[in-house]
Amino acid sequence: MKIAIIGLGLIGSSIAKAIKGHATIVGIDKDRSTIGYALDDGVILKGGDGLSLVSGCEMVVIALPVGSIVKVSQRLLPYMDKGTVLTDTGSTKAEIVRSLSTMWPWFIGSHPMTGKETSGYALSDINIFKDTVSIITPTPTSKESCIKKVKMLWELCGASTISMKPEEHDEIMSKASHLPHLLSFVFMHLVKEEKFPLSLIGKGFRDFTRIAGSDPVMWRDIFMANRHNILPLIDNYIRELSKVKSYIKEERTDKLEETLREYSKTRRSLDEHKG
What is the pLDDT of residue 193? Predict the structure, then answer.
């Protein structure tokens, strides 16, 4: 199988490394030095910055920030052969699936549940998908043969797959990933303004803020694309934080302890469920 991967950042190049030997891989990236590294490393067989390189490929994977996926696809489709399976790696799905399913009947949305707070070809990892889950978001009109090929792609990478509706995916991700990232980003404002003594920063601080080092462009696009799910969660968080603030301000130690105990119990239940 000949597969084109558009975007050789962390995810795109990790896919290329994971499926090397199972497919002929064409890499497309606007950064010519990245293409050079991938060619030198033998990660891709052919590469460049022109979208016409997808011609003759049986599958195309778009591994770009969610704000670029539809735009690039519109420029890409004229070069694709009829029947070529198109998929993406975006962290939001509803808008992307709604747009591309009407533009290309052989499109299947997908989202690998993995990543790092750092990005770029140099950080790519052949094992990043191993023992993870990739979500596939087909529509009622999706072709079964296309779904099978996208599932096969992620299985070759070492991931298992589950299917869900695009809207369901975005709602779940807003809680499981998007809001936590947003809170971590925003907390860095306090770090800057309050001039934290770096020598006293502990493990808890680093755990909470680690994901704030993620790619701002990628997360800007995610927050905007999934804003209808994220905005109500922000309001809920503010209300809950205001409640805790009032307990502290009014010295209501009993209510504060009770609330913290509820939070702690919920967190421990996550580990119990995992076990």
Answer: 76
How much helix, strand and coil, in percent to the nearest 5, is found in the chain? 60, 15, 25
**H or E element at residue 185:** helix 179-194
CA separation for the pair 191, 197 (Å, rounded): 9
H or E, element range at 248: helix 227-249
- Domain boundary, last residue among 131, 164, 197: 164
Taking the C-alpha atoms of residue 167 and residue 163, their distance in angstroms, rounded to an integer, is: 12
Tell me the DSSP string of 21-59: TTBEEEEE-S-HHHHHHHHHTTS-SEEES-GGGGTT-SE
User: Does 119 score more than 90 pLDDT?
Assistant: no
Q: How confident is the model at residue 205 (pLDDT cuts 50, 70, 90)?
A: confident
The parent domain of residue 40 ranges over: 2-164
CA atoms within 13 A on the CB side of 221: 18
pLDDT in tens, 12-56: 999 999 999 999 999 999 999 999 999 999 999 999 999 999 999
Instruction: State the pTM of this model.
Output: 0.90
Q: What is the mean pLDDT of the chain?
A: 94
The residue among 164, 187, 204 that closes a domain is 164
Strands (E), the chain: 2-6, 24-28, 46-48, 59-62, 85-88, 107-112, 133-137, 160-163
> Looking at this protein, which amino acid is placed at residue 186?
V
54-89 pLDDT, tens per residue?
Answer: 999 999 999 999 999 999 999 999 999 999 999 999
Residues 130, 11 within the same domain: yes
